[in-house]
Known about the structure:
By secondary structure, this protein is α/β, with parallel strands linked by helices. The chain contains eight helices and nine strands. The strands form two sheets. It has a seven-stranded parallel β-sheet with strand order 2-3-1-4-5-6-7, sandwiched between helices. The chain has a two-stranded antiparallel sheet with strand order 8-9.
Amino acid sequence: MGRSTGAATLRVGLVDGPVIVDHPGLGHAQIKWSCPRDVAERDADDVAAEHATATAGVLVAQCTSGALGICPGITLISRSVFRSPAARSAGTATWLDLADALVELTDAGARIINLSLSLTMGTPKEHRAVQDALDHVATHGATVVAAAGNEGAVGSTVVTRHWSVLPAVAYNLRGRPAQGSNIGRSIGQRGVGVVADGLMSLGAHGRIRPFGGTSAAAAVVTGAAALILSELPRTRPDELIFAMKGALSHRISVVPPLFNAWRAFETLYTARSWQ
Length: 275
């Protein structure tokens, strides 16, 4: 963050609820959207809007707002998966909603897509649609950073198993996975852990609020990835994921390593200096 605020030409996609773009903490942020329901009303205080706004705050909030604002210089593309009032009220998206959002953001030029949401039970056909969408993301040179989830489960999903996805787990201040964070073989092999305790971000009615769990962890990883790609724009998705998980290719643990953003940057910077 001392080296860069992010490149305006770098597009980061946000698959979440609608963002309260009129929040004072987002006054200088470059946020784009394609549908009015991708953004929320100024006085919105529903769970979907608060969650999306908190995630956006970790990424592009002003440094004076009280939120992290890791990469305020990038262009954020908001894509709500709750485009009907009923879906937004429930706060739960379908797998087909997710598939559509992934394809749309990729086609809009996003190189990183932040994903953290609860999904309904899906059918094999719906899971296949998400698999196809993630293949589309991969073939277009983008990377998905996905929250591992907060259900306290051990296992994987079609999302965390995909090679274009970097799963993120929340860690506590003792350097261990936080209670409730999902873990599993693909998460341990492909993912990273981030200390999310005590994090603050943007909330409803122009205020700030606590923000934690794997959603906060994923946002931190996305922000770091955005800064790395802003400095090293020719980095391929496979190179980015390899460096961000600590250049470890054969992990067997269900618990991912703790993320070190500077080490990831140095790994990629050193590799680029020899090319």
